[in-house]
Amino acid sequence: MLKSTFTPILWVLFPKPKSSKLSSLILTNTFTNSTQPVRQNASLKHHTPIITSPSSAYIHLPFCRKRCHYCDFPIVALGSASMQMDDDPRVLNYVQWLCREINATKVEFDDKTSLETVFFGGGTPSLVPPRMVSTILETLRMKFGLSENAEISMEMDPGTFDAKKMQEMMVLGVNRVSLGVQAFQEKLLSSCGRAHGLKEVHEAIDIVKSCRVENWSIDLIASLPHQTCEMWEESLKLTIEAQPTHVSVYDLQIEQGTKFGNLYTPGEFPLPSEIQSADFYKMASRMLSDANYNHYEISSYSKSGYECKHNSIYWKYKPFYGFGLGSASFIGGSRFSRPKKLNDYMNFVRNLENGLVDSSAGDHIHGKDIAMDVVMLSLRTARGLDIESFKESYGNSIVFSLLEAYKPYVESGHVICLDEKRKSIRIDELDDYVLNESNTEKRLAYIRLSDPEGFLLSNELISLAFRAIDS
Fold this sequence. Notes:
Elements (H helix, E strand, L loop, with lengths): L8 H4 L8 H10 L25 E6 L1 E2 L11 E2 L11 H16 L10 E8 L7 H15 L1 E11 L6 H10 L3 E7 L3 H6 L6 H13 L4 E8 L6 H14 L3 E6 L7 H5 L10 H17 L3 E4 L2 E3 L6 H7 L5 E3 L4 E4 L2 E4 L4 H12 L9 E2 L2 H13 L5 E2 H8 L1 H17 L2 E5 L10 H6 L8 E6 L3 H4 L1 H13 L1
Parallel strand pairs: 1-4, 1-11, 2-3, 4-5, 5-6, 6-7, 7-8
Antiparallel strand pairs: 8-10, 9-10, 12-13, 13-14, 15-17, 16-17
Helix pairs in contact: 2-10, 3-4, 3-12, 4-5, 8-10, 13-18, 14-15, 15-18
């Protein structure tokens, strides 16, 4: 799994985003005056999420051949011989602890439903032997139930699977593959510390196609050291030529403690400048949209009908299970994260089995925090924030505050207001649409960020919404 400028929800449990240098630079160049003051909220309705049974599970398989230079995720490096180590005791031992955690998890829902999505992330899940993946899936099936038509996704890296392994995974039910290509240049792959080269990339794409995997994604990273616009354009062209049904585009984030964190400073050579990073994002949006990929989420593009169902659970603020090292759950309105170190994780599982911890009783979320989470998650998507639903949950005053804060950005085109038919509302029409409660055809229904300019400002615009909610 990769980090992007817009940090993946699963790993950070919905934190409030900070303005990135890229966002601040674009904001400075676009607006010379400060935004207008936000109207004071008279009240904020207390809203508690409807407690429903999760229908999705994230499974963390932390094994990699080696750690990439940008990675700060909890992983276990197996070494270069890992492809031949189907009986590696480290893998077997971890899978046993993982299944123990699943079995020890409390299920206290009257409306228990079978899992509709399962996502194997890592790490490099494709290093795990199919028979162990089968054990995990069977454990999930026995504990929660597994829908016959469930989306079962697996992150797979080039050079870690062959056609036989791919076919075995498909027999087990894996029906969606996220292929960690990252770049189509040998130099960039090597400088990132990737365990695969360009030859393995093309072989992996051929395997996925020959095995007739219908639903598959290519993952790419922008803003890598020494990456040029020509390199990025080439990667996008080759991705489009490969014809995946989904593409994920992540912007490199330099993390402390990683090799890149020790070597580089964001925005300084050999990393691309902030303006270049913005150009990379715009290029991806333009080229993928021209190739009929829908930009349905900030870093996600798909052919029609191939949006990632599992990730959509996060954007819709729905509950989900998380199992394994460092993973996170969101259940019953509470957030809960597992330890990131292996020994601590094993102690956690022992305590879970002995009733000393409750994985469904984490930090509970209330009122303003929920409203902030809903805004952040909704504005990451092309659908945007459902104003009617938001107003019912949190009241009129908070909606007016958001609109007051966003008016300059509606005028500049970074924020788009839509009616029930998803037709754009002009700034001079906005007050009429907001105040007209009786006419459903003339009512503000959604707020979304424009693509790509609004998405580029997402951190700043979401932070602005937080200030409006918190005022």
